[in-house]
Description:
Chain A: Pfam families: ABC2_membrane. By secondary structure, chain A is mainly α. Chain A is built from eleven helices and no strands.
Amino acid sequence: MSVVPAEVLPGSAVAQRDRVTVAEGGVRAVAELGARARLWPALAAVYRAQLSRARVARIPLLFVATFQSVGIMVLMRGVVDGGGEARAVVAGSSVLVVAFVALNLLAQYFGQLRASGGLDHYATLPVPPAAVVLGAAAAYASFTVPGTLVTAVVGCVLFQLPLTHLWILAAVIPLAGAALAGLGAALGLLAPRPELATLLGQLGMSAALLLGVLPPDRLPTVVQYARDLLPSTYGVEAFGLTFGADPDWGVVLLDLAVCAGVGVASLAVATWAYRRAAVR
Amino acid sequence: MCAVRDLTKTYPAVRGRRGTPATPEVRATDGVDVDIRRGEIFGLLGPNGAGKTTLVRQLTGLMRPDRGSVEILGHDIVRHPERAARILAYLGQESSALDELTVSLAAETTGRLRGLDVRSARSERDAVLDELGLTALASRPLKKLSGGQRRLACFASALVGARPFLVLDEPTTGMDPVARRAVWGAVDRRRAEHGTTVLLVTHNVIEAETVLDRVAVLDRGRVIACDTPSGLKEQVAGEVRVELVWRERAPLDVPEVAALRDRAVESGRRWALRLAPEEARAAVAAVTGGAAFAALDDFTLATPSLEDVYLALGGSAGNVRGLVKT
């Protein structure tokens, strides 16, 4: 820690820096840096902290998300009459829970954190940006598990669909969750004001609601293109296919791969957005 | 140990929109030079908007300066802002990242994000919470605590995972005297045992006088003075502070009192004056004898405080009376 000699000398900062780097031998001019948090332990710590926030702040919202989806299915029961449309409604409503929490709530969270200066806390800790973004995204995706399961089971019972392949949710929730949470985090961190982050999150969820829950065959062509652009669509499609008697697993895998790809891309964008937001 | 040279940051002008007036370009720090020595408690003092927080954000790598250099323990923070997090612990003014966590989890998580493994994060957490008297509140979320307790919990988080340099932005805001004492006790222990250096941002002059080794006074982005508190006070040592409190109003019919009025800062029945010692003696003699004494409620004579120094240095053009309310 003996930078003092270098400091007392007059001269420009550049000259000082040279002196510090030149200093060798007995004098250790540059102090050792403190430990850096590694990616996985830091991610685990952020994940755990975020999960614990759910107990304080998120449980009522999770109920809202679930009731909203169940309510939509009850409404749609009068409109659709079994078959492919029923599958689309149940799959769409289940994935809607993921969109509500991972996209909408996470966008709001990061928007508020950024606006209030809360990001400074993370930015002044030696933690990889990816750990903060992935930890929060993983926690929000985890919040969606109970609601999505309840919605899927209630939907299957309502529309008399088989419960056989519900295990596919073990892949759909994390992959659709990654895609939507990445999108939500990116929106929240990029929005210049927290109100805009909230608005974008709400719009994203509304899009997931309209484009995911309504059976695609009844939508106009333009809207169908929009539907193809929304990452949650592929989660809905993959899940919907598994209700069939003999699902085409190749297509299911392909749909899930799209989710995974969008997830990787959007989480990378979110990480970049976090770096940008943290150092202004 | 921390050398700042010619640090300059200008916030661009903002065009006015509906509801928000336009703001001109603001030079938040203007060629700031500061040297902080190892093991000292160095203060940044100044009114709101003086550039204290901007300066701290540039020191902690949160903001890139337009010009200038920051070197902490031999590391160039302008070129490698990410290194700041491995050298210093920062207590900012906002707690929103920790608000919904319990005190215990906030401290533990922060420790883990400073690179501690689970076991050492937990043992350091327990030690720090115990040291600050927070153990009883450990399982309460920060949100549910009072302002001072929440601040203390954030301070605890800043201490888990020791760093040689603590940057504290108004750490004791809202704290009761017990909590304040816990904070300064913890700082002193780290200073004695590890030679920890502290940069303290404050606008509490009284606290500044008692805890700081040296202080830089900032005004409009410039360092207008930098010395020990007593050294700064010597700059106005020729003067004495006289405070007069009148029962109802000043007896202006007494010529000596009327003459003093021009030099007094009036607030209600209270007059504050800075006078040369012999003038002060004459003034006190005038008000404590004769007709003026009947109207006098109380008076004090004191050597100058940091607040007087700040005023004498010409901080923020006249309309700001001082840094703390009297």
